[in-house]
Design brief:
The protein has one helix and nine strands, in the order H-E-E-E-E-E-E-E-E-E. It has 158 residues and is of the alpha+beta class. The strands form two sheets. Strands 3-9-8-5-6 form a five-stranded mixed beta sheet, with no helix packed on it. Strands 2-1-4-7 form a four-stranded mixed beta sheet, with no helix packed on it. The structure holds copper (II) ion.
Length: 158
């Protein structure tokens, strides 16, 4: 005798399987959800840690760089001094933290040389301090005001 596919035994078995599968579905979903959340959390934490370490590295690099101090104004004067207050004539190539004190709104402080093409560090109309990181390469640099180009000095980088 062959079993009838629509027999009561078969139907009961099919119903049991369906129930079992629908009952286990939320479980599966929950587990997947938790795994996804965990993965997302790990990713977020990883990114945060990476950002913090990048921030710390950037801050440490910026503050440990040799410092240069530039001034422009208030008259027709421009200057660049090292951390010890000595007028800059020659510098070793590399990265520097340059702070310009702009003491006049009629001038700007602009730097020109290898790798730095007429970079206006402090603009005309601006008064106050401006700090930038500059990478100096071997060669001759000139710092000046574009409005009054005769307000100008040079230094050499080796
Ligand atoms: Cu000027």
């Amino acid at each position: 005798m062959t079993q009838n596919a629509t027999g009561p035994r078969f139907l009961a078995e099919r119903q049991r399987r369906m129930l079992a599968s629908t009952n286990s579905l939320p479980f599966v979903r929950k587990r997947c959800d938790m795994r996804l959340r965990l993965a997302a959390l790990v990713a977020v934490l990883g990114t945060a840690a990476a950002l913090v370490s990048v921030g710390v590295a950037a801050t440490m690099t910026a503050t440990s760089l040799p410092k240069l101090h530039g001034t422009i104004g208030p008259g027709f004067t421009i200057s660049l001094k090292d951390a010890r207050g000595k007028a800059v004539k020659t510098l070793k190539h590399g990265k520097y933290r340059l702070t310009v004190q702009d003491k006049s709104n009629i001038h700007n402080f602009t730097l020109n040389g290898p790798g730095i093409k007429n970079k206006m560090i402090s603009g005309t109309g601006f008064v106050g301090p401006k700090t930038v990181t500059v990478t100096l390469k071997a060669g001759k640099y000139r710092y000046y005001c574009t409005v009054h180009p005769f307000v100008s000095k040079t230094f050499r980088v080796t």
